Amino acid sequence: MLGSDLWDVFSTVQADQFYTVIEDALQAGEQQHIEYHLSLDDGDRYFEARVTPVGSDDTEHVLWLAEDITQRKRREEKQALIERVFEISPVGLVVVEPSGKILFANDRAEDLLGLERGTITGRRYDQPEWNIFYEDGTPVPEAEYPVTRVLESGEPVFGFEHWIELADGTERWLSSNAAPILGDDGTVERVVVGLDDATRLKQREEHLEWLIGTEMLADVGGWELDLETGLIEGTAGMKRLYGLPEYNPTLEEALEQYHPNDRAALRDAIETCCETGEPMELEARRKTAEETERWFRLRAEKTVRGGEPKLRGIVRDITQDKEREQRLMVMSRILRHNIRNKLTVIRGNSRLLKEELGSPEFSVDAASGHIDRIENASKELDSLAERARTFDRVIERDLRSGTVHLRQVLTDVRDDLGEQHPEAAIEVTPTDAEVAGDRMAIDLMLEILVENALEYSDLPSPRVKLTAEETPSGQVTVSVDTDGSGIPDMEQKVLASETEGPVVHSRGLGLWAVTWLVRRLGGSVTIDEDAADGGGTRVRLAFPLARSE
């Protein structure tokens, strides 16, 4: 640089700036200060210079003493950036000393806490005026404050949710994160606290909890079918209704879980809703993850979300409603049909008996026959009434509580019905199986099935075999095998469709009671013709296996 002028070394603008400073120093006879930066090969560097005139009064020389302040400048820039970020941060920021005094607070902290900055920095973090509470309204103890925990452990604390009472009496939910600033020796020199307004998020969580609770109380689940991908997304209610950890099947996978007799109607309803946009509603049966068959009512409508066509709907468990409807229907038919028929027999034979008693050709045998028929019809009415009363008592019990040892149940059924039907041979296969459920309900179901097996048998000495075995799916199957004629087709059709009408109806309450009770126990009933050993009929009851504590 020696022998060169300023304009040979520096840019014109910078050389002019330097020359002006030199002139000022010479004319004033006083030291001047200047900060500048140079673009050098290794990057921009910052300098601070003191320009001092030297020599006699008429000197034209100056001493230019420059100091490299690049690191200091960058620290200042970084500090300025930090302060700027601190102020414009969307998160409320508060800095706390180890003594507990609050040093700084930004604008967002003022908004969230509802206080002016001077009031915030005039407090300690642990003063009771902050009014910090847990969700249940219990005050948060000082030991649980995030700042306290950071000062004690030196570790950050994230996601501490609480609410505060503002000066105007309103509540505001906050999510606090606290982190330490450590010194060279590892001690906590400051604690930085980030405050975020969680009020809306908390309200959404409460709304979601309300929706989930509503789903549970109403036995309702929500679902959405993506018509482009064919995938279904279900709510928590769907998982609970079907007993599944997740519910995200394809449409075809979902349809396969419904009863074969209901599957076609459900598919048609979905296709019609997709094509016409008309809302759909129907009832269908479906098995849960526990292999329990339940009735569900499905409603859906076509909608558009995010530009994509969807089918959005709800599912409600209507099993109890369906059972109540079926019970009323069956009881009504029994009252109208069975009781009326028996009363007709009683009235008819009473009239004939009266005529016989007044006849000059009175016959003791004829009168006895009328009396026997009246007595038999009366006994059947009494039996029907007793069976209905027994069923009413059982159906109102808590059927899923308790543990039942099947060996004792099967033995008791064999002994009781063996006395009533000495012509029958009832065999029990030894078992150690235990099922979860109500003993009275299981007794009643097995009693009904064995009685029906004997009633429908066309053999003079029918044989019934009772067995129980555990299945790999965690159930116990109880089989009632008979070598006689099977259950009439009319009865089987009624139980398969679970409907009654003037053309198709069951003869009595028994098989209906079995169906209702086994479902309430969380099981199922199936009837197989020619499935028993040597032919005949096999009725199988599936019960949940008792779980060991």
What does this molecule look like?
The chain has 549 residues and is an alpha+beta fold. The protein folds into four domains: 65 residues, Beta-Lactamase (2-Layer Sandwich), CATH 3.30.450; 114 residues, 2-Layer Sandwich (Beta-Lactamase); 133 residues, PAS domain (Beta-Lactamase, 2-Layer Sandwich); 153 residues, 2-Layer Sandwich (Heat Shock Protein 90), CATH 3.30.565.10. Helices cover 42% and strands 28% of the residues. It is built from 16 helices and 21 strands. The strands form five sheets. A six-stranded antiparallel sheet has the order 5-4-9-8-7-6, with helices on both faces. The chain has a five-stranded antiparallel sheet with strand order 11-10-14-13-12, sandwiched between helices. Strands 16-18-19-21-20 form a five-stranded mixed sheet, covered by helices on one side. The protein is rod-shaped and about 170 Å long. About 1% of the residues have low confidence. This is histidine kinase. GO terms for molecular function: isomerase activity; phosphorelay sensor kinase activity. InterPro entries: HATPase_C_sf, HATPase_dom, His_kinase_dom, HisK_dim/P_dom, PAC, PAS, PAS-assoc_C, PAS-like_dom_sf. Keywords: Coiled coil, Isomerase, Kinase, Phosphoprotein, Transferase. Its EC number is 2.7.13.3.
Name of the CATH first level of the largest domain: Alpha Beta
The helix count comes to 16
- What structural class do helix, strand and pairing data support? alpha+beta
Would you give the CATH topology of the largest domain? Heat Shock Protein 90
Second rung of CATH, namely the architecture of the largest domain: 2-Layer Sandwich
Fraction of residues in H or I helices: 40-55%
